[in-house]
Amino acid sequence: LTSGGMLYPRDSESRETKELSGMWSFRTSGSDQDAGFREQWYSKPLSQTGPVIPMPVPASYNDITQDAAIRDYVGWVWYDREFFAPTRWRTDDLRVVLRFGSAHYYTIVWVNGQRAVSHDGGHLPFEADVGHLLSDGRRGNRVTVAINNTLSPFTLPTGSIEYKNDTNMYPPGYFVQNLNFDFFNYAGIHRTVLLYTTPATYIDDITVVTDVRDAVGVVRYNLTLGGRDLNPSATCKVVIRDKEGTAIAKSAGVQGEVKVADAILWWPFTMHPQPGYMYTFEARCAAGQEGVEDVYRLPFGIRTVNVTKSEFLINGRPFYFMGFGKHEDANIRGKGLDYALIAKDFNLIRWLGANSFRTSHYPYAEEIMDQADRQGVVVIDEVPAVGLHKENFAKQTLQHHLVVIEELIRRDKNRPSVVMWSIANEPSSNLAVSNDYFKAVAERARSLDVSRRPLTIALSSAAAKDVAHQHLDVVMVNRYFGWYSDPGRAQLIGRQLLACIEEWRNVSGKPVMVSEYGADTIAGMHMDPPYVFTEEYQVQLIGEYHKAFDVLRKKGYFVGELIWNFADFMTAQTITRVVGNKKGILTRDRQPKASAHVIRRRYHQLVNSS
Ligand code: GCB
């Protein structure tokens, strides 16, 4: 179903990019969902269809205005803007591609009134050749985007629309969007939109798989070429460059194996003084009849990942996950890409001494993943399969889940920071129907990832009833002892956690880690003795978990602890959330709660003692 390699757009001597970030025009469809389609809003400037407002791209639209109807909108919203394509792009020798880093959830794109592409799913890139749609008139071009954020039992993440038919209580036609998950359903054009060019015949995809044998890095690669007039005897030259740009190995052909002597391995920053070492895989292919060369430079790292019965190994050394689940979430911009926030978060990750995070509960922006690669931060890469319960284990959901897995692996397959795929969060994996479902998803993931990264799920059912773990390599467990069960009774945590984790180990025989534990905590709220929602209680609760983790670590199969959550984040309005989920060790604006200092001390100590 997916087509094309969708390599991240990078400038080179044969490629050019042009960002379309900035202010776009925006409007919702109001209460008439069909209006935009019926009246063909894509055939003219959006401002001629009715009132529009300026809307930043990238950003979620929800928190930009003072209008609750926009914040809480469910249905079609519309964006458009104009742009110029340089005259030099108007040639048959070039391919012009329009690419969206992501838009949430279902998106249709028109260029100059012609349908260019549509995409199902909110967290992965999509693109289309648009060269043939571009005008050569002086008035430039128009891109129109319609986005629908409605979630159903068959979308990922899952949700449902509930009609309220009691006319004593609700106006006619009243409905609500129910969400099967605990974060705000931010929507809009969340990541960078850009145009990029390639030669008409081009490098479509690169797969790099690395191994290490006696200090020699072994780099197996495969190049896919695209475009018209493909020359069957196309030549490709490959050069591996070190960080300084020096060529250290060479090869030729669309596939091959290159050896890097004395390879500098990619290491997590907690394991090595020179972490996150990235080489460059430079490919040059003159694949068309006309012999124009396409050049693409892919950053990659040389490292191995292996899972034994009890250990998680990076470059053959045991790795213990210390980190958190995160969210793409911030004030005003929602889930919109923000370089300042990315830099701040990675500085905080380093400050806290965390070596890893999970991309709960969806794939994060490629610009975030780039930093994980370069800074040596380990990532558990999760698909948006959150909220899978009885009614969701349907054929339609599975089909989409398989596509999402494919899109994610295609996007992140070459990233050294990604050491494991998380194929779901807290599914009802106690249900028999989930067995075939996860078997299919796991098989698809294993067949697609040439480097065979391990698979996991953040599980929450009872170990004895779980049917999903048999398809996985590592068991992640989400548990809220002392919070959702026995709130305020932190003294019970040790006993309960030890019993729970031992049971998961006995049932699965696999390495086990805790992927969520935590307590909602309002920054600045204090009480002693500790009481739920205070900073004192969060500190007490995590202290009890840490004691239990230390006992588990001695047992030899316990491979990590990820606290929930890195920072406070927004959720839907409910009576169990005080302006969002407050389980962050940082506030939403990234200031430490007392717990952050405890985590920081612990993570730094654990690194120094290992
Ligand atoms: C969970 C979910 C996470 C929630 C968290 C909570 O188990 O995986 O999305 O935010 O619990 O705080 O309830």
UniProtKB/TrEMBL annotation:
Q: Where would I find the Glycoside hydrolase family 2 catalytic domain in this sequence?
A: 305-606
EC numbers: 3.2.1.31
Top enzyme class: hydrolase
Q: Name one Pfam family in it.
A: Glyco_hydro_2_N
Catalyzed reactions: a beta-D-glucuronoside + H2O = D-glucuronate + an alcohol
How is activity regulated here? Inhibited by L-aspartic acid.
Asked whether the keyword Hydrolase is assigned, the reply is yes
Q: Which controlled-vocabulary keywords does the entry list? A: Glycosidase, Hydrolase, Lysosome
Glycosyl hydrolases family 2 sugar binding domain: residues covered: 19-199
**InterPro entries annotated for this entry?**
Beta-gal/glucu_dom_sf, Galactose-bd-like_sf, GH, Glyco_hydro_2, Glyco_hydro_2_AS, Glyco_hydro_2_cat, Glyco_hydro_2_CS, Glyco_hydro_2_N
Q: What domain of life?
A: Eukaryota
The UniProt record lists the Glycoside hydrolase family 2 immunoglobulin-like beta-sandwich domain at 201-303
The family database entries (PANTHER family) matched by this protein are listed as:
BETA-GLUCURONIDASE (PTHR10066:SF67)
Query: Which family, according to the similarity comment?
Result: Belongs to the glycosyl hydrolase 2 family.
Tell me how this protein assembles: Homotetramer.
**Function as written in the Swiss-Prot or TrEMBL entry:** Plays an important role in the degradation of dermatan and keratan sulfates.
Question: What is the designated name of this protein?
Answer: Beta-glucuronidase
- This chain's source organism reads Priapulus caudatus
